[in-house]
TrEMBL record:
Source taxonomy: Bacteria, Bacillati, Actinomycetota, Actinomycetes, Streptosporangiales
Protein name from the UniProt record: Basic membrane protein A
Recorded family membership: Belongs to the BMP lipoprotein family.
Subcellular location: Cell membrane
Transmembrane segments: none
Domain of life: Bacteria
Signal peptide: 1-23
Length: 352
């Protein structure tokens, strides 16, 4: 089987090109990337999750890390976007394409890449792989690293902020797709809200889609409708963990002059929600950009080690945004909660 994959080549001049490649590998690429002295130079290949660059959330955080790699490490990068509801075979094809083109290291963004990377990495033992959000924080092979995040810890802090800022005493949570990963966001948010304000009412969580339908991570219209429902139920703060679909949540909350809480990236300055920025209370930061940069940097320094690496509040792998100064008045309380989580005094649940 052959499949044409369209890829954007990111270079210092932001040039783009389209490549056709065999889906199942086997075609050996030219030794592109070999320096004039014959030594291999790094070229980083990155495969995005659904939504790709421009989702102004999860993927854009990965993109920021890739951009930093290009700028700070002066390394060529190439990126490919995923298609909605695609099978694992397509993800494997994308990864094989990059590995066959001598891109090393190779990055898969999103837990859905875990199985594909574990499989492809066995066929390319000299290529280093990273899976962001490794499923269940598990990977296979000495040439594979999994970046895992304590989303529940960052969500605890924005849940506390939501509760402390709510005037109606009612807040809401909207998840993109009903999967265990997003349950961590919900669990932390609810726990943080209750810890900061025991009398707070947290509406039943709303999930936009059920797997295998992943539109809940990319369709803003779904976020819009869900936000309307929670606003009608009295919520004046809504936290979304819905990727691109969360743009609809933010816009709808902002139009109603109610608070929205962003996710993954600092969404305060995102162009897609410019009209609602005054109503973005904060964002739960998930430093995918740091994980991407750390991984490539380790490969470039020859200090790479397979296995998993956790990003949490102890290493600022998660956190909350201060843009807009909307939480300045409660920052001391939030930082106090952070210190208690880091010390172990507060144990944050991972399941609702």
């Amino acid at each position: 089987m052959r499949r044409a994959l369209k890829i954007s080549l990111v270079t210092a001049t932001s040039a783009a090109l389209t490549l056709g490649a065999a889906a199942c590998g086997g075609k050996k690429a030219d030794d592109a990337g070999a320096g004039g002295d014959g030594k291999q130079t790094l070229k980083v290949g990155l495969a995005f999750d659904i939504g790709g660059r421009g989702d102004q959330s999860f993927n854009d955080s990965a993109a920021a890390g890739l951009d930093r790699v290009k700028k700070d490490l002066n390394i060529t990068t190439e990126e490919i976007s995923a298609k909605p509801d695609e099978p694992d075979a397509d993800k494997e094809s994308r990864l094989r394409l990059l590995a066959n083109k001598k891109y090393n290291p190779v990055i898969g963004v999103g837990f859905a890449y875990t199985n594909a990377i574990n499989k492809v990495a066995k066929d390319f033992p000299d290529t280093k792989f990273l899976v962001v959000d490794a499923d269940q924080c598990k990977v296979e092979g000495a040439n594979v690293m999994g970046a895992c995040f304590s989303e529940e810890q960052g969500s605890f802090l924005v849940g506390a902020a939501a509760a402390l800022k709510s005037k109606t005493g009612t807040i809401g949570f909207i998840g993109g797709v009903n999967v265990p990963l997003i349950h961590k966001f919900q669990a932390g948010y609810e726990a943080g809200a209750k810890h900061a304000r025991p009398d707070i009412k947290v509406l039943p969580a709303k999930y936009l889609t059920q797997p295998p339908n992943f539109d809940g991570f990319k369709n803003p219209a779904l976020g819009n409708e869900a936000a309307k429902g929670q606003l009608d139920a009295g919520a004046d703060v809504i936290y979304h963990a819905a990727g691109g679909a969360g743009i609809g949540v933010i816009k709808t909350a902002g139009a109603a002059k109610k608070w929205a809480v962003g996710v993954d990236s600092d969404q305060y300055n995102q162009p897609a929600v410019a009209e609602a920025k005054d109503y973005i209370l904060t964002s739960m930061l998930k430093r995918v950009d740091v994980a991407v940069f750390d991984f490539v940097s380790a490969v470039s320094k020859d200090t790479f080690q397979g296995g998993t690496k956790k990003y949490d509040l102890t290493n600022d792998g998660v956190g909350y945004a201060l843009s807009g100064n909307k939480v300045d008045d409660i920052k001391a309380k939030l930082d106090g909660y952070k210190a208690e989580i880091v010390s172990g005094k507060i144990q944050v649940p991972t399941k609702p």
